[in-house]
Farnesoic acid O-methyl transferase domain-containing protein
Amino acid sequence: MTDEIDIISSISEANILDYMIDLSSYRMDVLSARFLTFEVKACKHVALYASSSENKDSTKPLYEIVIGSHQNTMTVVRRRNDASLHTSSRITKQSNSQNILNCNEYRPFWISWEAGSIMVGSGNGVGENVIVSWIDQAPFSVKSLGILTLDKVVGEWKVFIPVKDNFAGYSTSCEAPGKRAVLLSLGVVSSSLLQCAAMCSQLNSCVVYNYQKQDKRCELLSVGTDPLTNVPKYLAAEWQYYSKCYDENDACFGCFF
């Protein structure tokens, strides 16, 4: 979820990247990505930022994509070269898109930035239903991506994130016992807790496992292909869920949402 902030766009806020939710913190492999698909529920003004900086340096060139701008009537693609806020430092392309967002339902969209061809579209098919497109004659490498809602709007997002396969060989339980994760089950087997952890570690598709000590039941879980913004759980006596950790244990799946 993106909270409401009193900012209209990168035109008026020099340090715009300070406010975005950086998708790299959710293990997104930004450097190898060329597009992003997502669903969002908001009344207006949802924004995405593709930056040439790895550490939210707003003085570096960035692309700003705003869907539902101008009271939910426009979609905007903008390149900003620096944080000066001078008119000469930016290029803007926009297109009419009346009522493209909805306050009460998720709407699917995609963005792509292959070889400087910046495109925004609706639906789940990348390259289809293009709303606005623009070719950057001097493209930069996108090193970070982030989301934000502008103009005092709250947004709810479901972002499909292609992640790095850099499992750290470590799993953790980040909540008190008595909770069982509910994801796509890869199977339930009888094993020790150590064997359960080993089985999940050997499967790239396994990101979480549930374990019930009393009956030695091990359930391996995957996120499947659906966009995920949370790991659903429910109270279950005797059960405990464990999450695989990545990036040298800095990011443990299910513990950073």
